[in-house]
Specification:
Elements: H1 3-10, H2 18-26, H3 30-38, H4 48-55, H5 59-64, H6 75-78, E1 88-94, E2 110-112, E3 124-129, E4 142-148, E5 157-162, E6 165-170, E7 183-193
Parallel strand pairs: 1-3
Antiparallel strand pairs: 1-2, 3-4, 4-7, 5-6, 5-7
Helix pairs in contact: 2-3
Length: 195
């Protein structure tokens, strides 16, 4: 669900007039609400509780609608590289294979205020791991930092997409190295545990 859909639902099922109506209720300009709807900006920190209350949401749920998605073609690509205040979207929990993961259409469960290096030059994200069957790569409660890429060096752990979902694989050299049925989405560039 998008912020636009929430706004339409709040306005009796129609988007027509919803931005202006919400703007009046919040005391902001209609173009401000329009920018929230298109993902150009998000409500200020002090205004988010009021927006959430008006829409009948918690602030945490409201914040999920303001993760930069397709605001511009490079919105997530630049996050964590050029913006020191950028947040890394966290997907999961990943409990078993295959799992669901998508930079473009997935809805993160949280945002972590991390700055991630350039990695492989793509967008950054994290997977929250649950369960103990990910050893030696990760343990229950770990976060795996990912960098978007389409190829990675031998020995590197990667997220691959196969017909039935995503899997974690280690790139191997030698015969049978590539599998035409799998497509590399991201490389694991780090691991951490929240304290």
């Amino acid at each position: 669900m998008t912020f636009e859909e929430i706004l339409a639902r709040w306005n009796g099922g129609t988007l027509r007039g919803a931005q202006t109506r919400l703007a009046k209720r919040l005391g902001v300009a209609p173009n401000t609400v329009s920018q929230w709807t298109t993902g150009v900006s998000r409500p200020d920190e002090d205004l988010r509780p009021k927006v959430a209350r008006e829409l009948g949401l918690s602030v945490q749920v409201l914040d999920r609608f303001f993760v930069p998605r397709r605001r511009s073609e490079n919105a997530w690509r630049d996050a964590g590289r050029s913006d020191p205040g950028a947040s890394v979207p966290v997907f999961g929990p990943v409990t078993e294979e295959p799992f669901s993961f998508d930079f473009d259409s997935g809805v993160p469960e949280e945002l972590l205020p991390l700055t991630v290096g350039a990695g492989y030059g793509g967008r950054s994200a994290a997977l929250r791991v649950k369960g103990g069957h990910w050893s030696p790569l990760a343990e229950d409660g770990d976060y795996l930092l990912l960098s978007e890429c389409s190829a990675a060096p031998d020995g590197k752990w990667v997220v691959v997409r196969r017909g039935d979902g995503c899997r974690l694989r280690r790139i191997k050299s030698g015969p049978g190295r590539s599998d035409d049925r799998e497509r590399v989405l991201a490389a694991v560039v780090g691991r951490f545990r929240r304290v």
